[in-house]
Design goal:
The complex is a heterodimer of chains A (about 325) and B (about 500).
Chain A lengths: L1 H9 L5 H12 L5 H5 L1 H10 L7 E5 L8 H4 L6 E5 L9 E7 L2 E4 L4 E2 L1 H12 L12 E4 L18 E7 L2 E9 L15 E6 L4 E7 L2 E3 L17 H15 L3 E9 L3 E8 L5 H6 L4 H9 L7 H16 L1
Antiparallel strand pairs in A: 1-6, 2-3, 2-6, 3-4, 4-5, 7-8, 7-12, 8-9, 9-10, 10-11, 12-13
Helix pairs in contact in A: 7-10
Chain B lengths: L1 H27 L8 E15 L5 E7 L6 E9 L4 E6 L4 E7 L4 E13 L24 H13 L4 H13 L8 H10 L2 H9 L6 E8 L4 E3 L3 E7 L4 E5 L11 E5 L7 E3 L1 E16 H11 L14 H10 L2 H15 L8 H12 L1 H23 L5 H26 L12 H41 L2 H9 L3 H13 L6 H6 L1 H6 L2
Antiparallel strand pairs in B: 1-6, 1-13, 2-5, 2-12, 3-6, 4-5, 7-9, 7-11, 8-13, 9-10
Classes of the chains: A alpha+beta (about 325), B alpha+beta (about 500).
């Protein structure tokens, strides 16, 4: 077992305790958390600084407004309902279309308006929020994801998670929904995670349920070697998010929309550690190197380039 | 810097906690384990008499004062409506009961609880005044002179001199020349007093001490007398029957002066009886006494000064930090996921009452039934808070139902189900059903069994009775627990479960 521990240490894997003690507690000021925990605030912040986000159709804040739900979505065939304070993808309801007064969910179920309103009520009463405080429900644009990931996704929207440390992108992975994850892009719920080479924007290894895989478990398509377009632009976008909220250790979730390009979906103050498994590379050395840096470039673009250089240096 | 700060803080906490505990153990003498008990002696003086109806009653009883080798733990007087005054000076103590009028048979009690305490060995006395030879009655002068001369010839020092005198007086029956002396002695005073009187003729300082042999379940009608003689350096105790030196083992000196007596005025048929009994008492009481004796106020502010039922609450509460330490360990070092941070401790506390086996069964029963009902309520599409309230109501009903049914079936343990924290149970049910829906039954079971595992570990830790006693006796040890928690708070190494989670790294990487 100690050999095991030794190996793990050598590979530079950041553990949960180290993440919390050395990075989150040290670089993420508590007072900044609400900026990312409240997706509505993040959205407004992003919109104010010109960062592309999915369009907001409406917000339901109190129980009484739930009745106005059908009004909000009248002009939209498809949309997404999500809790403003949700975590881990819980409480997100994706509607892809309508059929005879019913709403078709991304997993194929048909929901009545009443069922959707119940779901919204649950969101408002804080069922999905951290700590159970009353919440708001956001209704927003449903991302039509880039055909690039068509073959390696099973319903739901794949997104690209980037860890940004002190404004420098450190690691990336693309999260692919599976039948098991029920369209959600969370690894612990069964999504596939694929590491990305920061230099090229090409997918490398993939894991599913903490195990390396080559093909998507539902579609059977090969996962590695997919090249993400506008890669440097995407990294720059992720680096910009650091300026947006000021968190030192940040997870940025970006989706690639077919027409609108990269959109920032949400930010995370406590991003998970599985990204290391997807990349087969521990982050600890890189993070410590950045922690020691005295000067960090001011522009997001330079930081994205710096991140790529550090990544390349760390490969060897 | 932060690390140093933390280490210093934990060091200070440990030193303070352990230091205080050490002080209590070494200096005040608190026992380290609960089972330590010390022998104490209960001595009861029972005074009985018949009151004369026409006169006031005055009862005088000498009391022990700082007896050598013993400490008085407790004493009390049972004297109904008698006036009681206790007089004390350097040489002794006396209780005086008084009543203007009484009828019939009267009983007075004095009870003292003693424990052996080597620290109260007698302080050296100041050298006594050498007595002048008393003026003996004329006809006794030659007899006493004869006794003293004979003793002087056969002795080497003060002690052996006194011993010879004692021997002569005890064998007076076979010595006809002492007959007159014995007659005088037996008429006026007791033997010890007479010995002292005769020794004064040789200018040897002597005194009479009285006391009781401490033997379990013994009764005495009088105190036993010993003679002490002073040899120029210290007092030596001599047996007045055979002249042997030294006090018997387990002997308590009741009084060291001659001039106080047990006496009763205004009564007839008076008598006194001393009874001795041995009992055991938890050392803690004695320690409390000792700390007071040393002028330390530590024990006055200990948890033992609280009312008993509050004490019992604290016995449980003081164990909670230990449970918290277990939770911290299980979550941050092992990496076990639980429902809610401290839910396992609360469950563990309920286990204390239900016992582990029944606790697990009852918990599973309530949560299982609760989940079924929760699944039904789910269909009604209730809002969160009313739904929680509904589940809470059901949990209470379930608990009541389980109690009644188990009671009817003859399982009395079922009754203790009421001790489960029902709000916690409700939250557990709610969170479990959410986890079930969102992450699947596997994850839900993983978390609930994780919670139960931590609860069981916490229970096992909290029910170590030695630790329970230690934390109650030495609450400052919680500072050490706090230090351990603080240290764990900066542990940034891997969790045990992460070795499994990141196993892919150890397989493929060089």
């Amino acid at each position: 077992m100690f050999g095991f521990l030794e190996k793990l240490k050598k590979s530079g894997v950041v553990g949960m305790n180290q993440r919390n003690a050395d990075f989150i507690l040290r670089y993420n000021k508590r007072s900044l958390y609400p900026l990312v925990d409240d997706k509505l605030r993040t959205k407004y912040l992003a919109m104010a600084s010109g960062i592309a986000v999915p369009e907001l159709y409406g917000v339901i804040e109190i129980q009484h407004d739930v009745a106005g739900f059908s009004n909000i979505v009248r002009n939209h065939e498809d949309f997404v309902i999500k809790p403003a304070h949700g975590s881990g993808g819980n409480g997100i309801c994706v509607i892809t279309g309508r059929l005879n007064n019913r709403y078709r969910q991304s997993n194929g179920d048909l929901l009545t308006e009443e069922e959707i309103e119940y779901h919204i009520s649950n969101i408002l009463s804080g069922l999905y929020s951290l700590g159970g405080q009353p919440d708001q429900a956001l209704i927003e644009y449903r991302v039509k994801f880039d055909p690039l990931f068509e073959a390696v996704s099973y319903r739901g929207v794949p997104d690209i998670r980037t860890i940004v440390f002190r404004g420098i992108p450190v690691a990336c992975m693309v999260r692919l929904p599976t039948r098991m994850s029920d369209g959600k892009a969370n690894l612990h719920q069964g999504a596939v995670g694929a590491g990305i080479d920061l230099m090229t924007g090409r997918t490398t290894h993939a894991i599913w349920q903490n195990f390396p895989i080559e093909q998507h478990p539902d579609t059977g398509a090969a996962i590695s070697g997919l090249e993400i377009p506008h890669w440097h632009k995407l990294l720059t976008l992720a680096a910009q998010c650091h300026d947006l909220v000021g968190l030192g250790y940040l997870g940025v979730d970006v989706v690639l929309d077919r027409e609108l390009g990269p959109l920032v979906l949400e930010l995370n103050a406590r991003p998970g550690l599985s990204i290391q498994i997807a990349n087969r590379r521990g982050m600890s050395r890189l993070l410590e190197k950045i922690a020691k840096m005295e000067k960090i470039p001011a522009s997001a673009e330079d930081r994205a380039t710096l991140g790529q250089e550090l990544f390349a240096a760390n490969q060897t | 810097m932060k690390k140093l700060h933390l280490f210093l803080l934990t060091l200070i906490l440990c030193v303070t906690g352990l230091g205080l505990a050490y002080y209590k153990i070494a200096v005040i003498g608190l026992p380290l384990t609960a089972s330590e008990e010390a022998q104490v002696w209960n001595i009861e003086a029972r005074i009985s008499f018949r009151a004369k109806s026409d006169s006031a009653i005055k009862v005088t009883l000498p009391l022990p004062l700082n007896p050598a080798g013993y400490s008085i733990l407790d004493e009390d007087f049972v004297s109904a409506d008698y006036g009681l005054a206790i007089e004390q000076d350097n040489s002794g103590r006396v209780a005086r009961w008084a009543k203007r009028r009484a009828h019939g048979k009267q009983l007075l009690f004095y009870r003292v609880v003693l424990f052996e305490n080597e620290e109260t060995a007698r302080k050296p006395d100041a050298a006594p005044v050498y007595p002048k030879p008393p003026e003996y009655p004329e006809k006794l002068v030659p007899v006493i002179k004869g006794v003293l001369d004979k003793a002087r010839q056969q002795s080497a020092d003060t002690i052996s001199f006194a011993q010879r005198v004692i021997e002569q007086l005890n064998s007076a029956a076979s010595l006809p020349e002492l007959k007159l002396l014995m007659k005088h002695v037996s008429r006026t005073r007791n033997l010890a007093k007479s010995l002292s009187w005769i020794l004064a003729g040789a200018r040897i300082p002597s005194r009479v001490i009285r006391g009781l042999r401490l033997q379990d379940n013994r009764e005495y009608t009088d105190l036993e007398h010993f003679l002490q003689v002073y040899d120029g350096e210290q007092w030596h105790t001599l047996n007045i029957r055979d002249g042997r030196e030294g006090l018997p083992a387990d002997f308590i000196i009741w009084q060291t002066d001659d001039d106080r007596f047990f006496s009763i005025e205004g009564a007839s048929e008076s008598g006194i009886q001393y009874s001795v009994a041995k009992t055991v008492q938890e050392t803690i009481n004695i320690a409390g006494f000792r700390s007071a004796e040393k002028g330390s106020h530590l024990m006055e502010f200990s948890l033992y000064s609280l009312p008993v039922h509050t004490q019992n609450v604290y016995r449980v509460l003081l164990m909670v930090p230990l449970g918290a330490l277990v939770v911290v360990f299980m979550r941050n070092i092992i990496g076990i996921r639980t429902f809610g941070t401290f839910m396992p401790i609360l469950i563990a506390m309920a286990f204390r009452e239900t016992e582990l086996f029944w606790g697990l069964i009852l918990f599973s029963l309530i949560v299982g039934l609760g989940l079924l009902l929760r699944a039904y309520v789910e269909q009604l599409k209730l809002l969160l808070v009313p739904r929680l309230a509904a589940v809470l109501t059901m949990v209470v009903l379930l608990m009541a139902g389980v109690s009644v049914i188990m009671h009817k079936l003859g399982f009395e343990m079922g009754l203790s189900v009421a001790l489960f924290p029902m709000v916690i149970m409700t939250m557990t049910i709610e969170r479990m059903s959410l986890t079930w829906e969102e992450a699947g039954p596997m994850e839900a079971f993983k978390q609930v069994s994780g919670s139960l595992l931590v609860a069981v570990m916490g229970y096992l830790a909290m029910s170590i009775s030695e630790l329970q006693y230690m934390f109650f006796m030495f609450p400052e040890l919680l500072l050490v627990v706090l230090a351990a928690i603080l240290l764990l708070g900066r542990y940034s190494g891997y969790r045990l479960m992460e070795l499994w989670r990141f196993r892919a790294f150890t397989r493929n990487k060089p």
